[in-house]
Amino acid sequence: MSGDDATTEGRAGSVSLTPEQQEFQTYVRRWLGENAPPPPPERLPITPLEVMTTGQRDYLQAWQHRCHDAGLVGADYPTAYGGGGHEGFQRIANLEMGRARVPFLINIVGLNMAAPTILAHGTEAQKQKFIPGCLSGDEIWCQGFSEPGAGSDMANQQTSAVRDADDWIVNGHKVWTSLGHFAKWMILIARTSKDHKYDGLTYFLCPIEGHPGVTVRPLVKITGESGFNEVLFEDVRVPDAYRLDEVGKGWTVAMTTLTYERGAAESAGGGGGDGPHPTQRLIDLARETWRDGVRAADDPVTRDAIVQRAIVAEGIRQNGRRARVPALCDHPMRLPLQQKLASSEFVQHNARLGVDIAGARSTLYKLDDRAPDGGHWPLAYMNSYGHTIAAGTNEIQRNILGERVLGLPKSK
Question: Is 261 assigned a catalytic role?
């Protein structure tokens, strides 16, 4: 048996597989090889966060549904909630979907944030109601954390929720709401008490699509895409049955969500990406780019820059392996924050290098047939700033690492 059959490798590094996991790996590879999706009806964005048309949504939603039916999504979740009931299978499925470079799964908030948070904090009724739709992609979710006046201070929430019998009346304004225009549900933090900053927050599973009092407005980014939005609430009724965990525990629940959003734990589904070698696309670009009659791949400075990116990629993989060894996790926040920082900046630096390699032709955008790699690199570079802002800006992450992990004094 080859080493590739006995192990799997990805962001989390190489691990030995059990016989059952090896069988699942073989099944996933075969299924992906036999069930490649048809070409999309229109160009897909780089990530789910930029999905903006109904054509893109319908295509990606159908693909996620097929992957879920095949057992490639929610593989580690209990069968009672629409999962596969296994352990350690989802990492395999995610890696194989990345290797196959199949389309990403659209319901990124449902898979990476809502489902694991509901699994950790929800009632049995909430788990049975909400998790299956997250996994299948039938119900798209969005995230209602950011507000226009809150910046990166998530505790400074001004959206309010006031109890009215068996309902809560929500008023406020959320912003940077990816997929809000297609979402049926939102994970929502609202202020239920003004007397306490942290203990005055409560976490809700809020209906969005067609719900009275909810207004979704698209926001256009520098890329020209409008995959995220602002969402306004005017006397919106949310049943108390949709409150997640206890009143005043919203901050604690949100920390669970952020743990998954920052990539500190395995998500419920994968897909997309550049396969197991994140620098391969840069190598291909360098081989296809000519400068003054010489390939960029033959330029020693360019070659060294790509090697440096490969070294960082390997460091991120090894850091992921470390995160799975409890004895090496000296602080619960260190590795999640470290991974978020390193991964988001890796994406950004890769994209910048791609722009540099393409040179003057990197000014050609995605609609220009002459654009290198279909105009991927300038689009990726502009989009990359979302990665360094989302889940708490990288500046905030560095402050938290310095103050809470390294014990440095608070910055003023």
Answer: yes
